[in-house]
Amino acid sequence: MAETEFIIALTEHRYFGSVFVPYLIEKEEQFYTVKRHIKPRDLENNSDYSFKPYERELVGIIEKYSDENLTKKFSRAGSVSEFFSSLKPGYFEKNVTPYIEKQMFKVASILMLCPVRLLKKETKYANLYDEDEIFVQPVFANPVFYFERTEKETHYRLKVYLDKNEITLKNSKLQIICNEPCLMIHRSRLIVFEEFNAKKMVPFFEKEKVTVPHSIEEKYYSGFVLNTIRDNDVFARGFKILEEDLKKRAVLSLEKNLKQEPCFVLHFYYGDEKFLPNSNRKVAVNLHKRNDSYVFEKVKRNFVWENTIQNHLKEAGLKENNGSFLPKGYELFEHSDLVYFLVNWINRHKHKLEANNIHFTQSNLEKKYFTGDQQLEMKAKTSGDWFDVYATVRFGEFQIPFIKLKKYILNDIREFELPNGEIAVLPDEWFARYKGLVPFSKGQGEKLQFEKHHFMLLKNGLQQFDKSVMERFQKMEATATKGLSLPANLKAKLRAYQEEGFQWMFHLYKNGFGGCLADDMGLGKTLQTLSLLLKLKRNRKKEIEVVDPTVNNGQLDLFGTSGEEENNQPASLIVLPTSLVHNWDNEIRKFTPALKAYKHIGIQRKKAVDLGKITEFYDIVLTTYGTVRNDIEILSKTEFFYIILDESQFIKNSTSKTYKAVMKLRSQHRLVLTGTPIENSLSDLWSQMNFLNKGVLGNLAFFRNSFITPIEKHKSQEQQEKLQLLIRPFILRRKKEEVAKDLPPLVEQVRVCEMSKEQSKLYEHEKSVIRNTILENIEKEGMEKSGLVILQGLTKLRQLANHPSLMEKENEESSGKFDEIFRMLENLVAENHKVLIFSSFVKHLELLQEKIEKQKWKYSLLTGQTSKREEVIQSFQNDPDNRIFLISLKAGGVGLNLTEADYVFIIDPWWNPAAENQAINRAHRIGQDKHVFVYRFITEDSIEEKIQQLQEHKSSLADKFINSNNPFQKISKEEIVALFK
């Protein structure tokens, strides 16, 4: 098989002269035969030759000046022939030829270094011979000019050296392949010039020297001679060429680019001569005429030094971008903030740059920015219940109290004017570190004061602490008190997590903090709280028991004054939903009988009683949220030991009468208990945290701007983390799966029910009427004033989705959902299961009750009208034949322990999953030993299904903070309209 070789041929193009072309050739006996002209497509589709990397590169470069690519690049002609025939005079020489010569030089440069042969090929012939080889010289040719100035004239000669050997120009057979840079053939050698125009060589093909008369020498020296000295090696007689080692300086300048954007520009100075890094000028030459003599000062750039400087900038984090330098991350900044970013960068790196002989300046800016030393010194000390923070900022020679920058930090003002008029740019880090800290401070002279419950903010935000501060931080950050034992007379065995909760609350007590115990339903928040109160119980005065049987179920009415008084610790006030009073009373009697409880509830309560006296003799006062609202004038006059709010979501609305009332209560310590501290919005959390530790989250307006809006609307991870930092010491949250490994799994399903035919017709008719009514009301009154109309419309559709008779009692149409519920209920009763059925409509429960009675099944019913709750609950729990418990969601969402049930029906789910989860937790709680199955019944193509879909797209705020459920958020007008489509 003949040997195949890749070569480059020098051949003639029909339009633009000699060009390089790649070929594969085969060796014959006396010559070579051209096998193929290689194009890029052949590199992948040639099975009989393996192309080397440099061969592939050569093919790619040469393809750039193929006829087709030149046509695409330099014209809109439809064909190659049209392109060449339509060329205007001079266009080719001015635009196309320089482009081709640039590619030819790249090819020649590669041929100088690789073993690919260059052969001359006649266009007409396909055969090549060894004699056609052109030997590519491996070094660049060096042109040297020799100038001599005499009294009459100036003349110069040109010599070309190739590796110190002179190439004779005059009368030599030379072929110029490219003009600039020059490529020429001399005696079968390709000679390559790095930077030289062949036209300067042409005169010397016929003569030894070129002469310039004295009359035009000044113009000649300032033009041709100066440029020649700049670009080539020159020897001169009759005038001077000075090449001095001038002082080098690198200057980084803050200025604006052509787009008027701030940036860094690097300048290299050699004496007074200035170069930009990306400038093509390698040499600068200046001409000075002194008397009748000419002196040229030649400055050569030191690229090794310049590269070292640029490497220093890269190591410092700058990257080159279109001739300017910018720090990494600059693209994240708006135009107006970029200058601040750059000034802060200089402030941090200036010393390091100067150590590397890189100086800094500012040019053509509207302001003079301060770029000296900038330091912030902060130190905290303890002062009673406060932390005092002393902070000073140093801008060079100026010392400024940090408190003077407080308004700048709060209002995102970056520029601070110094006494000398320079503008100091406050660093981003200060805003990031202190903007979340400063709003919680109070100014006292030149120091900032922080309340003790902001200790986590201080610990995270400050770097310098007094020893006493560190000790206090460590004490406050602990989650338990070492060596703390449970109260001896506690009548219960606490689980490990319950004991941890008890110790956590005691730790808060010791540090004077309020706390939120936010364990899942059923984990024993009541028991943990009673354990704390029992631990903190003090001896009381002995009572003279004069009992009035008509008041408060025989509670103490008159008190004596005899007996020893150990201390003045008053009773604790526990505020509850009405339905939980009985539960708390039972748990106190069962687990902590040593604690004496007084119930300040009901219409029979004695408002005129002296609560001050009561708190001296009792340990606990139980009351309800409604009672607090009504009796706030009485209750607020008494100081309690603890105020404890159970189901504290009752105060989630800070504009409500309930919240305003409990905020008037006075106590030494505070606790709240809830499984769902966040139900609708982070504002729920603010209300409860503000009750516990007033001001811990700032005022509501600040909290809304700093946390609610950034987190709920913009999903700000940074603000989420800051909020978590603020609340972490004061919230303890344990989920059932974390602490109760023996709890059976919970299985949840959605059962979609189809409407009956007549029900569907009625639903669609009513939906159309309701939609029109709502839209008219929105157009007329606006969204804010249409809430009642929207709610009424939604309620009607919900009722129709459940059963038509919920809206019209006389309506006897059937309901698909109702039939499915009852079908499943029949199966469960037959299989001896117990089931809880929750509904937010009492009428819905009554429909089921009516049908259940017809079947003669035993059942229990609990609504807001039920008077004997305990009897009803015990009947379901203890009677094996009582398998059905009908419960209204409002009446049975809290305070029930119904572990006998292993099925839960939510028969009309709505938009608040927190309420549903509370209902589910009646059965799925500690003590349950069976699998719990939950079914949510949704009517297909109804408002329920749309709400369910909307709810799935809502984010759960509580999952991010306290892992509780997040109910349906506020609906927009567009979502309202979509619900009624």
Automatic annotation (TrEMBL):
Swiss-Prot/TrEMBL keywords: ATP-binding, Helicase, Hydrolase, Nucleotide-binding
Top-level taxonomic group: Bacteria
Annotated GO MF terms: ATP binding; helicase activity; hydrolase activity
Lipid metabolism as UniProt keyword: no
The UniProt record lists the keyword Hydrolase: yes
Residue span(s) of domain Helicase ATP-binding: 506-695
InterPro entries documented for this protein: Helicase_ATP-bd, Helicase_C-like, P-loop_NTPase, SNF2-like_sf, SNF2/RAD54-like_C, SNF2_N
Pfam families for this protein: Helicase_C, SNF2-rel_dom
Ranges of residues in domain Helicase C-terminal: 817-969
PANTHER family in the cross-refs: SNF2/RAD54 HELICASE FAMILY
Name of the molecule in the record: ATP-dependent helicase
